[in-house]
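Troubleshooting log. The previous structure file for this entry was overwritten by mistake, so regenerating from the original sequence record. Sequence copied from the archived sheet and checked twice against the printout by T.R.
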Amino acid sequence: MRRAASLAALALLAGCAAPPEPVRPPPALPPALAAQPLPPMKSFGPVHTQPPQRANSDMARDFLDLSFRLESGRTLPILTRFDGPITLSVTGRHPAIADRDLAALLDRFRREAHLDIQMAPKGSDASIRVEYLPRATMQAVVPQAACFVTPNATSWADYRASRNTRRADWAALKRRTHLAVFIPADTSPQDIRDCLNEEIAQAMGPVNDLYRLPDSVFNDDNFNSVLTGFDMLMLRVYNSPELANGMTRAEVAARLPAILARLNPAGEKPGTAAPPPSPPGWKYAIEAALGPRGTVRQRNLAARDALRIALDNHLDDARMAFSWYVRARLALPRETETAVTALAEADTIYARLPSTAIHRAHIALQMAAFALSAHQWEVAAKLSDRWLPAARRAQNAALMSSFMMLKSRALDGMGRAAAAKALWLDSLGWARYGFGSDKAVRAQEAEILDLTADRAPAPPAGQGGK
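Regenerated output below.
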């Protein structure tokens, strides 16, 4: 399940840092932006993933925890999966680009995970049914979910009728025959693509998420949005011929070393000690800090609790870094220095872990926003230049466009108005994919412009933002 709220979202932290004195405000950009239409949406080409970097013994442990537990902590008694070829159908109104993204994803499943998956012929029964529906309709029933997959359902109405019964219980499942994926249609193309990646993958593989994984979409921090090399390896293992429906955790564990050695010979190297489990109190505090419920003060207190629990329990991995990150995001706007310190702590930890460039890029976006609001033009531009490639590799258009807008304002501050305008206009096609509606794009633009609002900047001529 992809969670509805995550602090990996693009809301910027800055705007509260006092600019240094004296300061030379940059010239305003041309003011004709808001009245003009946005440019065509941009989109990504093929995904280029990095092979998993960790030892096979570590990934075997991850596989077992992903495959034999639910996010709630309940254990799953046996492994379940589809037998034979898998078919998929789509219903509900949705943006046309979602079909293109789905076709590219199915091609990745076939090439990288070696899965036999195809679109179902019209009118035929499908193994996996993707149903698009209004976000308000979905979240009225499952408010914490941005999108989700459920067993033994063929439609939204079918799910509503069976959601509190044994039929919808993953732990009661013997094999997978019909699963449904529910995705809101009225969200950004990037959000829809991210839901397709995670939920269809979980329909064919592990259904758990683990906060300790830095290199996976199976992680509720939502930093990774398209399936990684680790994720594709997990799907290959899950559907390998050595495994079968009905196997217990012990039976699967006995076969994993040979399967991973065959599929990932580069991972045959010394592993690490087993990490401590995530304390229930830590997970509860993280989810309370991220979730839509509670006051700002309550969420801030939850972020503090999560960090305290992580420190007390020596969660010295991605969970510690994420605890610092969440603390930073909830510290604003009243605790600017605390937020900057917490971001630096998170970055230091992520820098020690493999496959965390996208995590560090999110942190860099916040630091660049602070620099921009302080009129430190060169710092903001250098941070954007350094971390924009990571956002591009991760195919995160929202992050890309935000970096480009930040650098545009920095270039403007350095007196490079023509380059600033060109970069701003270039950012907006990516913003349309990353943020969705014209209103959302304009709002993102306004947020970036507000970072230098002391000089009442006008938008660049030609386009707008979220």
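Residues 14-35, 455-466 have pLDDT under 50 and may be disordered. Archived copy saved in two places this time.
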